[in-house]
Amino acid sequence: MRNDHRIGEKYGQIVHASANKRTQRATNGNIRPDALDGLRRIIHRVQSTVHETRAGTISLPYRRSLYTKPMTSGSIIQQGVGRFAPSPTGDFHVGNLRTAILAWAWARNSGRSFVLRMEDIDRVRSGSADRQIADLKAIGLDWDGTILVQTTRSAAHMQALEYLVEQGYAFECYCSRKDIKEAASAPHVPPGHYPGTCLNLTDTEREVRRQQLAELGRTPALRLRAPASEWTVFDELHGSFTGPVDHFVLCRADGVPAYNLATVVDDGFQHVDQVVRGDDLLSQAPAQAALATLLGIAVPTYVHVPLALNEAGSRLAKRDGAVTLADLHELGWTTEDALEWIGRSLGIDGARTAIDIADALPIDSLRALPLDPWVVPPPTGLPAF
User: Fold this and answer.
1) Which residues neighbour 326 within 8 Å (Cβ) at sequence distance 6 or greater?
2) For the chain: N or C, fewer Cβ within 10 A?
């Protein structure tokens, strides 16, 4: 089933039901009134502990846009916004820096603003965010406005979740990871996808499962009731891409909004209409686009660029050798040497700054980037070029 335009009108505007129909959909979606009350208690608790930030506020209630224009020190131009949104889980390696440069070049060369967001909603390593920001500045990247820290947006994420629950687009899931792993071995389930165990349980079955979890001191997670089995997005490098839409987690059992919900809501808040990131995330784009449509957020254009791999064909990591800027400096490399190395991986000779790379990659050249990964042999001495 392709994108069902009955879900939303052009530009992702939601087709809203009447108040009575919303109540009916919430009931049919197997979210009981007491579950809604429990969600509202979570939202209230989150809102009472989240401080107002310079990034701005949101105006929901549902049916309307999930964001107001960010109130930052730098203006956001109207012709579009690109972004780089790393997770502060460790130091950048040269592959991460390459992706950041490409995201920056795509935004700047297409006349867009460029924003930076720290996606710290999951695992965080102490000091990583500061070091990542320092590396981006060292290679010459700049951004518009203030850096948005994802965990400061918890109240907005929970309001979006409340909307999805009230519209019947969410259901409780009582499964453990072991349950999902065992059930996902069924032949009809795409690899890595939720098998639908809790999707259509009866009210009686749900009450039993809630009690079982309560006895273990656990609470259900909330998952998306996927609006379609697949969705189509447009990618500047991969063209039209259709992929399955999973019943993915919206809110973890511990009450923390999940990454896929947070990143879609925050892209909407920052008016992002161009997402440049590694091609390992291409498979997530259809599900994120489906969620954006349900929330009334315009779906961005995607650019999934090739990853950097080690010589064994696995994703590049710090353990692979001198692959971070700090490691290269210890070998006697300059930052300009590192940038030239990155430029050479993109077919550019002699680039010594990020601007050199961007200048050598106008939009037509960016659209013609090869899709092969960058295989990175970690250097052991001074650069040979």
Assistant:
1) 91
2) C
Categorise residue 357: left if φ over 0, alpha if ψ from -120 to 50, beta otherwise: alpha
Distance in angstroms (rounded) separating the CA atoms of residues 256 and 158: 9
At 164, phi and psi to the nearest 5? Answer: -65, -40
Angle separating helix axes 259-269 and 285-294, nearest 10 degrees: 60
Q: What confidence tens digit (pLDDT) does each residue in 39-80 have?
A: 655 544 444 433 332 233 333 333 334 443 443 333 344 479
145 sits in the region (left: phi over 0; alpha: psi -120 to 50; else beta) called left
Is 211's pLDDT higher than 80?
Answer: yes
> Residue 192 has what pLDDT?
75
For the chain, list the domains and their CATH numbers.
10-68+153-305 (3.40.50.620), 81-145+306-375 (3.40.50.620)
CB atoms closer than 10 angstroms to residue 221: 21
Q: Tokens for 317? A: 């990591």
Q: What is the pLDDT of residues 23-35, one digit of tens each?
A: 344 444 444 454 5
Give the three-state DSSP class for 280.
helix
Give the pLDDT score at 167: 95
Rounded mean pLDDT, 341-355: 97
Amino acid (one-letter) located at 105: A
Whole-number Å distance between alpha carbons of 368 and 190? 31
Rounded to two decimals, the pTM is: 0.81
Give the Cα separation of 25 and 37 in Å (integer). Answer: 16
Q: For the chain, what percentages of helix, strand and coil (3-state, to nearest 5) are there?
A: 40, 15, 45
Where b means 16+ CB within 10 Å and e means fewer, 10-24 reads eebebeeeeeeebee
Residue 383 has which token pair? Answer: 């650069």
